Amino acid sequence: MPDLPVPDRPVPRPGILEIDPYVPGKSGVSGVAKVYKLSSNETPLGASPQAVQAFASLAGKLELYPDGSVSRLRTAIANRFGLDADRIVCGNGSDDLLHLLAGAYVGPGDEGIFTTHGFLVYKIAILAAGGVPVVAPEKDLTADVDAILALVTERTRIVFLANPNNPTGTYLPFDEIKRLHASLPKRVVLVLDAAYAEYVRRNDYAEGIELVATNENVVMTRTFSKIFGLANLRLGWCYAPAGICDALNRIRGPFNVNGAALEAGIAALADHAHLQKAVDHNETWLTWLTEEIGRIGLSVTPSVANFVLVHFPQAAGMSAADAEMFLARRGLVVRAVTAYGLPHALRITVGSEEANHLVVAALRDFTQAVHHA
Ligand SMILES: *Cc1c(COP(=O)(O)O)cnc(C)c1O
Questions:
Q1: How remote is the CA of residue 41 from the centroid of ligand 1, in Å?
Q2: What is the mean pLDDT of each run of 10 residues along the chain (373 residues)?
Q3: Residue 96 and residue 140: Cα distance in Å, rounded?
Q4: Atom 10 of ligand 1: nearest residue by CA position
Q5: Closest atom of ligand 1 relative to the 193 alpha carbon
Q6: What is the DSSP letter of 116?
Q7: pTM of this prediction?
Q8: Which of 15, 39, 80, 170 would bridge 127 by S-S if both were Cys, CB 3.0 to 4.6 A apart?
Q9: Where do the domains of the chain lie, and which CATH numbers do they carry?
Q10: What are residue 160's DSSP bridge partners?
């Protein structure tokens, strides 16, 4: 065997340097005083006032380690959703859990499947674990069960599916999820990422609780970052079969959920009125934005979440990058989605009433400016 050159400095494991670092949505625009951040799917209603109060109550106890078992929070989640608290694992955001799942089930050379416009963290988590990312094509910007199944091989260990998906806002009915699960080998972990579940108003949708409860290879992940408005605290959880919980609990950080997140999470769960307000706000303004933007002549992918994907026709001389800049000059910060394979679209979070009106006015002015150029 030829001698391999000895590196003169530490070299990351194979796969690590193939990772394109995740670029979060922008938060500001230089030179613009009032900024409306519509780039990260944050709630315009903020967190529940009770959650804010619970967060503040931690101020005098910063020297104490949190409860590493997160037991009061897991009990609160279990009571709320009718689950077994022992089958809940919490994380530092649901991103933490996605990485732990890949870390526990994917090894060098193993394959993990996600879809073309799926959430970017899936690819990062698979590569970080040393695995091989496998991308299943979508149909009409929607996950396609048959395309996913066609890519399953002996090496497949995990399938990540956001339902609804970010950044498209599309979803699969529960029948399709069940059909996907039924044809997956039992050794493959099916991860149903339900980050936007609370926003969905469709009779044929389900987050996946029933599938988790009755199988050994399905995990549902949830987050407090979106409708609960606690993105800054980093809090997510998953409901998983006993075997998977056991694996996650062995490799997670012993204090991966901080005490402020734990307290705020419990309070946020208890504030039903705040949650309902957020659901109602979204229902009203998601519909309004979709209709008004459509009326301008731009196509909007039908969304069941708290954002819309707006497409800019190249044929009409429009570019998403120009639109992004046009909106930014008015303080409207939205999400470019080129990294998601959507170079001609922008993702816009449903904002406050004021922000939503400004978005529609800006898009109208942008399209008129292009027509008259
Ligand atoms: C926002 C989002 C999450 C949540 O991430 P956190 O780490 O919990 O903040 C997970 N999955 C998808 C698809 C998302 O859009």
A1: 9
A2: 82 91 81 93 98 96 97 98 98 98 97 97 97 98 98 98 98 98 98 98 97 98 98 98 98 98 98 98 98 98 98 96 97 97 98 98 96 80
A3: 30
A4: 195
A5: 11
A6: T
A7: 0.96
A8: 15
A9: 16-46+273-372 (3.90.1150.10), 49-272 (3.40.640.10)
A10: 191
